[in-house]
Amino acid sequence: MPRIYPIGGGKGGAGKSFIAANLGVLLAKQGKRVVLVDLDLGGSNLHTFLEHQGQKIDLNDFLNKKIKNLDHAAFPTIIPNLSIICSINCSLEIANLFHAQKLMIIKAIQRLPYDYILLDLGAGTHFNTLDFFLTSNEGIFIFTPEPTAIENTLRFIKAVYYRKLKQLFKQRAFNMIVKDLLDRSNDTTIKLPDIIKFVMEQYPRRGELLKARLSESKFKLVLNQFRKQIDPTLGVKIEKVCNRHFYSKFQFLGNVSYDERVYDSIFSKKIYMTKYPYTPTATDMQYISKKLTEVSQDPISVSSKLS
Amino acid sequence: MKSFDELNNYEILDIPINASEFEIRQAYKEALSIYDKNSLATYSLFTDEERSNVLKKIEEAFYTLIDEKARTDYDMMLVKSGKVEASHLNKKDQRKPIPLFRTRTSIDEGSFLKKIKRKVEEKEVREISNQILSKDVISGKDLKTLRESLGIELEEIFEVARISISILRAIEENRTESLPSKIYLKNFLKLYAEILQVDSIKIVDGYLKSIHSFQETT
Questions:
Q1: Maximum distance among all alpha carbons in chain A?
Q2: Angstrom distance (rounded) from CA A235 to CA A222
Q3: Record: contact B43-A244, CB cut-off 8 A
Q4: Are A112 and A35 within 8 A, CB to CB?
Q5: Nearest Cα to Cα of residue B34 among B22, B24, B43, B21
Q6: What ipTM describes this predicted complex?
Q7: In three state form, how does the secondary structure of A187-256 look?
């Protein structure tokens, strides 16, 4: 079964596509078969990081049912073992996918025949983005150290977490509990945290189940554009806080140093990892890719079907 | 979101039950650096109300654990309620800061040497030193036995002879790779033997033989 790593994080410009592209390069260089899927529909640019022009056939043809197998939209890049599925041809309205189309994409992604599948997601907390992020249990959150980025990322983490909860509430017999809660309280608007609290208190067995399902998610954190003057333990602290206050698990993978040359590589449309393989930033990326392949020893269950 | 409601004071500060005062202070500082309203790590994660609740809990935990009497009462409460086993309260193996230097003031050399002289004349000590000096090869372990039988600390040798403690340790542990060059080593051994008030020539010869044979066997 392939390992799927959705790469997200609330803020735009945090480096999601950069990390996705270069992580793909590093994993491919380890001899793994890797495919990158550009799911930033309407803001597709992942191919530019990989010296790739974009192909005539891409995700759009899969959505229009011109091709049946999503793998036919995957094209090799100049890096051996690394393929890419673009979404340049997707019409502009496509950013607002229909529910059925979204499910079709998610199911097709889970069936792609590769070792590693990296999903590059767009910014924001639109529920399509959240559902793509929940394609697997091992989403990677990319954030930068500015307060604005951290605010967006923590909000994105919360949004993903609550989206996961909502999926769970719909799946299991939680509906009854929610109705019960609605009957008991006079307030018509009930917030998710209240439901969790209610479930834990009134239905301990269901509560345990909920905890178990939530703890299946092992999210990863990467701090990008790390600069010297920033508290180096920031990532570890955020990991600690998330593990303490969410029922899901979080792992901080590491800092990626800020480097002007990232812009060079983007302007010259060259792959950063091949143009500057011996910079601190490249070393950081290598460390993270090693950590990812290490942790990927334990099997994950791909998040169960969406309702 | 999980809150701190079910956690005990130790869990809130994320420290072991037998934590030392030093650890408690460190953990409190760390907790504040995470949950303070100016902290980047939790920026926008909590509402003002949630944050002030969490901070109140941390504050409460710190002030309970840092006060010796309040902590004992709290521990008793934990044990009684069955949440914690009494054996975990053992303070013996708690972590403490390692002092960089002993704060002891330098010793009075005269009375120190007099004290050793008295010791050397004791029967048991003389037996040990005679036994060691009669050997052809004297190892670091022998030196250590001799020193300990005289009740001398390494720090005291340092105070008198100004040989660094790491070298003294290397000598006693036969760590040839950490030893200084031969000419220094000879001098150090001589000083060492003089403080222990034994025949320095024998010690130097015996020890050099021992490290020589040690180097050959490895």
A1: 63
A2: 8
A3: no
A4: yes
A5: B43
A6: 0.76
A7: CCCCCHHHHHHHHHHHCHHHHHHHHHHHCCCEEEEEEEEECCCCCCCHHHHHHHHHHHHCCCEEEEEEEE
Give the residue carrying structure tokens 């070792």.
A115
DSSP for B95-132? Answer: --PPPSS--PPPP-HHHHHHHHHHHHTSHHHHHHHHHH
Count of other CB atoms within 10 angstroms of residue A59: 24
A246 vs B contacts (CB less than 8 Å):
1-2
3-state DSSP call for residue A118?
strand
> Nearest chain A Cα to B42, which residue?
A238
pLDDT tens digits along B34-62: 999 888 888 888 888 889 999 999 999 99
Cβ contact (<8 Å) for B2 and A150? no
Tens digit of pLDDT for each residue in A183-242? 877 766 777 777 888 888 888 888 888 888 899 999 999 999 999 888 889 999 999 999
Look-up: residue for tokens 């393929």? Answer: A83
Question: Distance between CA B161 and CA B146 in Å, rounded?
Answer: 17
Chain A: residue whose CA lies nearest to B38:
A147
pLDDT, mean of residues B174-189: 90
Residue among B2, B34, B43 whose CB faces A151 most closely: B43
